[in-house]
């Protein structure tokens, strides 16, 4: 009993040190910075919060000028979205795309480290604006090329796993016919420009839609062994299965070289079924711990992933949508979370020693 107590004392002390120290950044993890709240801290404070926790990447859903100014010289790598409201004009008018890139990208480069421009979020296949995604992507690409930034900043679009017509087992992954109609030329564009496909991946929603068939441990990275055997690949968590279903679909579409970037993933801490502080902490910390390992289909290739979201946002729909935040608007953490891969590895090492 004394040994176990001492072990947990060490772990608690380590976790406290993680939260108060500036950690080493886990480079493949970022956090989405949503702004649908009327009580959120100013962007300069938010950028300071990212830096204090060692969060090295951010997704920003529109070119908020105050946030972009705060990001100058921060070394935080950025996904920035083209909002849905801008797509039609940017698709039909190359000058509109050129002006948008000039005002929102070139004006801040290189002191703001843009990584990707996401042209639309979850519009394919069902949104009326889906028709504008590819022409807008092309015009943004042309504008970046004119500025000499085509090799530094990649253009993509964000989809969700609803673009899959089949996803189980993962090797059967295939895009639906409706999604394929839009994605086929987009994937050709991505291949030609060596750009990734951005995919929002939420095991939480898959679990709550089918809790009788999906175990909570499988959804939270807590399964003790293989849950789904799919040919040569064994799956111990739902996240990997969903990402690999997208990879299988990409291969079937002739785009197996396109990399998946997980542009959103998370678990709510309140507001609905299986939404709790404990489950949210478990999912997000395990995701941070896991991404460096890759998926069974892409073993050893670190997954670039972005947790959703930085804050609980009170202007989103009531329920779980308001409770995906890692932080409250007062900048206090909803639960302890470490972005330091070194500290996470040390906790794992101590746990392994205790188990011996």
The helix-strand sequence is HEHEHEHHEHEEEHEHHEEHEHEEEH
Q: Spans with pLDDT under 50 lasting ≥5 residues?
A: 1-26, 350-356
The tally of helices reads 12
- The pLDDT mean sits at 91
Structural class: alpha/beta
Overall strand count: 14
Structure notes:
The protein is α/β, with parallel strands linked by helices and 356 residues long. The protein is 40% helix and 17% strand. The chain has 12 helices and 14 strands. It has helices at 2-20, 43-52, 65-71, 84-92, 94-106, 133-146, 177-192, 203-209, 216-219, 238-252, 277-290, 341-355; strands at residues 29-33, 57-60, 77-82, 113-121, 154-160, 164-166, 174-175, 197-200, 228-230, 233-235, 260-265, 294-295, 298-299, 305-307. It has an 8-stranded parallel β-barrel with strand order 1-2-3-4-5-8-11-14, surrounded by 4 helices. Helix 4 packs across helix 5. The longest helix has 19 residues, at 2-20. It is globular. Residues 1-26 and 350-356 have low confidence and may be disordered.
What labels describe this entry?
single chain; 356 residues; alpha/beta; 8-stranded parallel β-barrel; two-stranded antiparallel sheet; disordered N terminus
Write the layout of secondary structure elements.
Elements: H1 2-20, E1 29-33, H2 43-52, E2 57-60, H3 65-71, E3 77-82, H4 84-92, H5 94-106, E4 113-121, H6 133-146, E5 154-160, E6 164-166, E7 174-175, H7 177-192, E8 197-200, H8 203-209, H9 216-219, E9 228-230, E10 233-235, H10 238-252, E11 260-265, H11 277-290, E12 294-295, E13 298-299, E14 305-307, H12 341-355
Parallel strand pairs: 1-2, 1-14, 2-3, 3-4, 4-5, 5-8, 8-11, 11-14
Antiparallel strand pairs: 6-7, 9-10, 12-13
């Amino acid at each position: 009993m004394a040994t176990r107590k001492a072990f947990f004392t060490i772990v608690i002390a380590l976790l406290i040190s993680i939260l108060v120290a500036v950690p080493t950044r886990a480079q493949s993890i970022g956090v989405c910075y949503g702004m649908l709240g009327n009580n959120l801290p100013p962007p300069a404070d938010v950028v300071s919060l990212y830096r204090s926790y060692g969060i090295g990447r951010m997704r920003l859903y529109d070119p908020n000028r105050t946030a972009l100014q705060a990001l100058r010289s921060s070394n935080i790598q950025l996904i920035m979205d083209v909002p849905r409201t801008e797509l039609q004009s940017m698709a039909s008018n190359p000058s509109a795309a050129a002006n948008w890139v000039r005002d929102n990208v070139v004006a801040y480069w290189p002191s703001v480290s843009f990584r990707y421009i996401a042209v639309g979020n979850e519009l394919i296949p069902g949104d009326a604006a889906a028709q504008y995604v590819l022409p807008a992507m092309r015009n943004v690409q042309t504008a970046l090329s004119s500025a000499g930034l085509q090799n530094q900043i990649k253009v993509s679009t964000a989809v969700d796993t609803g673009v899959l017509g089949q996803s189980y087992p993962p090797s059967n992954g295939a895009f639906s016919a409706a999604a394929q109609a839009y994605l086929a030329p987009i994937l050709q564009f991505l291949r030609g420009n060596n750009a990734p496909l951005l995919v929002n991946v939420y095991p939480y929603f898959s679990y709550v839609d089918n809790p009788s068939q999906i175990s909570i441990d499988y959804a939270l990275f807590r399964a003790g062994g293989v849950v789904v055997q799919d040919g040569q690949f064994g799956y111990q968590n739902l996240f990997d299965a969903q990402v690999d279903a997208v990879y299988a679909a990409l291969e079937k579409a002739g785009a197996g070289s396109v990399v998946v970037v997980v542009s959103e993933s998370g678990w709510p801490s309140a507001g609905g079924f299986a939404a709790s502080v404990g489950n949210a902490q478990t999912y997000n910390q395990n995701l941070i711990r896991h991404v460096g390992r890759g998926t069974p289909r892409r073993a050893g290739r670190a997954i670039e992933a972005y947790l959703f979201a930085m804050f609980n946002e009170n202007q989103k729909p009531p329920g779980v949508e308001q409770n995906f935040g890692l932080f409250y608007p007062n900048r206090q953490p909803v639960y302890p979370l470490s972005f330091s891969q070194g500290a996470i590895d040390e906790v794992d090492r101590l746990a392994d020693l205790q188990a011996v």
